[in-house]
Amino acid sequence: MTVSPPTTPARQDLIARFTDMLGPVGVITGETDTASYCTDWRNLYHGRALAVLRPASTEELSRLVQFCNEHDVPMVPQGGNTSMVGGATPDGSGREVVICLSRMNRIRNIDPNDLTMEIEAGVTLKAAQDAAREAGFMLPLSISSEGSAQIGGVLATNAGGNNTLRYGNARELVLGLEAVMPDGGVFHGLRRLRKDNTGYALRQLLIGSEGTLGFITTAILQLHPQPRAIEAALCAVDDAQAALKLLGLLRARDPALLQAFEFMSGTGMDMVIDLIPGTTLPLGERAPAYVLLELATPRPDADLREYAEDVLGDALEEGIITDAVIAESEGQRTGLWKLREEHAEAQRRAGASVKNDVSVPVTHVPELITRATVACEKLIPGIRPAPFGHMGDGNIHFNLVQPEGMAPDAFLARSHDIMNTVAAIVKELDGSFSAEHGVGQLKPYMMPSWRGGAELAAMRHIKAALDPKNLMNPGKVLPPVTPGT
After folding, report:
1. What is the domain partition of the chain in residue ranges?
2. Is residue 26 over pLDDT 70?
3. What is the pLDDT of residue 394?
4. Mind giving me the DSSP string for 190-217?
């Protein structure tokens, strides 16, 4: 049974002070009203919050953070609450406040000469994409949760997504930042400069820090020209090695045209087709694996359709692919992407799953998939490996679904065994145990063995210097200090 935080004068006084600073609309209390802010998207973590606080400006946030710092109130930054690793969920103590910047949701400016967008942290990624498109430009960040994920959280986790292959992760698109630091001070870094060699790049320290070093409030993002032609194709392949050959062929022909290159296992695709209404496989028959690729160019005179037909025709002749379909309309293109984007939901419907967001050098992706599949099937007979993801940049979501007939709780009890089995192979292949989802509260235990020594020590020093009271998103990213770590 969940027990509510005690109603004490101290707690009531804190809530009264919060209300004075933010107004009644900026403060949410009560277990029922705060419940959705205290559970993560995957339903793995369930916490309690002293209150959910919603400042409407950087000035309000600055005063709020200064007050929390002075009164030792732990703070949990939260955007759209789409974290896959529990990075935005409070603990169970009822002492922490969740601070959500959803009221800070203005797109301040789009500059057509600089190709930049100045945007507040509470704007959803989808709204930012739409605003850029309406202005004739493209914000290339694209992730499955873009309809609810907010810019502040997207940057705090250095989101990657489908277009990283061409445009890079979130940090490659950020020119300037404004942020409220753990003591309430404001970092004024909203500069639209591509060249600025004036000391440490503090914005890059905040990007990817998962809210442990401060609150990102506003950003200046790099936009790109809107593509004038886009072609998407779904290809059937025999295995990941064939997919890698297809990637090599596309890069050899014209690497500038390739915008996305997504791998999907046959098992994962079967789950989508069987469990997600409205999805159909637009190929002659099901295959062991698939690639969804997208080509795009801003050039007005490019015959991208002919190019796509030629290169896929050659791939078919060479035996690299066994079948392919090119979208004939925007609706068909959306349908192809739906097959990719519904993988996580299909796996949820298929049963309990353990997610491994990992990356390896692109050349090692086939070996990762082969070895991890064998190792996990040996660990738990009947387990259903369903790897998919951004093969073009080496990031594979090596997800595993429970064996049919196995109790979900019993399967999830083996989560760390499964994660460690996959991680051991990733480590041997010079990869990372977290590619784009972050560390959150799910994976700090991995940090000493992967990022120990001088690297972890430097992270601890930075955290201690900026947040000496450990009030900013405590329990996330960095593991507790123990001898040897």
Report:
1. 9-100, 107-225, 229-343, 351-428, 443-485
2. yes
3. 96
4. ----S---SS--HHHHHTTSTTSS-EEE
pLDDT tens, position by position, 344-354: 999 999 999 99
Q: How far is CA 36 from CA 15, 32, 33, 46, 82, in A?
A: 19, 8, 7, 10, 11
What is the H or E stretch that residue 297 is in? Answer: strand 289-297
Assign 335 a pLDDT band (cuts: 50, 70, 90).
very high
**What whole-number distance in Å separates Cα of residue 268 and Cα of residue 344?**
9
| Burial tier of 347 (Cβ tally within 10 Å: 0-12, 13-18, 19+) | buried
Q: Could you identify the residue written with the tokens 């707690």? A: 11
Distance CA(179)–CA(169), nearest Å, equals 20
pLDDT tens digits, one per residue of 62-109? 999 999 999 999 999 999 998 888 899 999 999 999 999 999 999 999
Residue 2 above 50 pLDDT? no
Residues 6+ apart with CB under 8 A from 216: 121, 151, 152, 155, 156, 177, 178, 179, 206, 207
CATH architecture of 351-428: 2-Layer Sandwich (3.30)
3-class SS of residue 385? strand
CATH 3.40.30.10 assigned to domain 107-225? The reply is no
CA–CA gap between residue 82 and residue 2 (Å, rounded): 23
Q: Are 422 and 434 in contact (CB under 8 A)?
A: no
What pTM was computed for the model?
0.91
